[in-house]
Amino acid sequence: MNSKYTILKTIMKKIHSMQTVPTNWVYLLVLTCITTACSQELEETSSLKPHTDHKHHTHHEHHRHIIQLPKNSGVELEFLSSGKRNQIEIHVIDAKTHKPYSIDSENIQATFHTGDQDIPVIFVASPLEGDPDSQSSRFVLPFEELPQQLKLLNDFQVTLTLELDGKSVTGTLDHKNDHQHHHE
């Protein structure tokens, strides 16, 4: 873990010394570093086991966030940032087995709440291998489509709304950057 923070610290020092780099590239580099340090790639065949020692959400291994939905829905949402794929991903998973759960939906609606602003975005279906035709268990938002005001946020709330069996279901993630990042 410390090696990630050392790498991030080194990159941040280099960014501070690069006065001629365009601002957009700096933002992209910082966002990539933050998301890479706070998450790792979801293995599509992995069996996930949550731990519940956080107040507002559950962290899975590698800092994935589980969003609880109403108990009668039978599913949970997993929110993660994929540095390898340059996107934010939402995975629909079975609440008991924690395996992918395909739904018949083209998108998941999301609203990021950032203090004084509500910023709507849409995560589009990106089926995993093995998802049935016209269904998906993964929904994505590419980093380049992420609104500018969200790119450097550490603390936010996001409300996700999806259709399950013809019913609208909502879940909320309160994300506070409670991870220890050491910078000099």
Walk me through the structure.
With about 180 residues, the protein is α+β, with helices and mostly antiparallel strands. The protein has one domain: Immunoglobulin-like. Helix content is about 15%, strand content about 35%. It is built from two helices and nine strands; from the N terminus they run ααβββββββββ. The protein has helices at about 1-15, 25-40; strands spanning about 60, 65-70, 75-80, 85-95, 105-115, 120-125, 140, 155-165, 165-175. The chain has a nine-stranded antiparallel beta sheet with strand order 1-2-3-4-7-6-5-8-9. Strand 2 (about 65-70) and strand 3 (about 75-80) form a beta hairpin. Helix 1 (about 1-15) packs antiparallel against helix 2 (about 25-40). The radius of gyration is 17 Å and the shape is globular. The model is unreliable at about 20-60 and about 180-184 (pLDDT under 50). This is C2H2-type domain-containing protein. It comes from Gimesia aquarii.
Quick summary:
The protein has 184 residues and is α+β, with helices and mostly antiparallel strands. It has 2 helices and 9 strands.
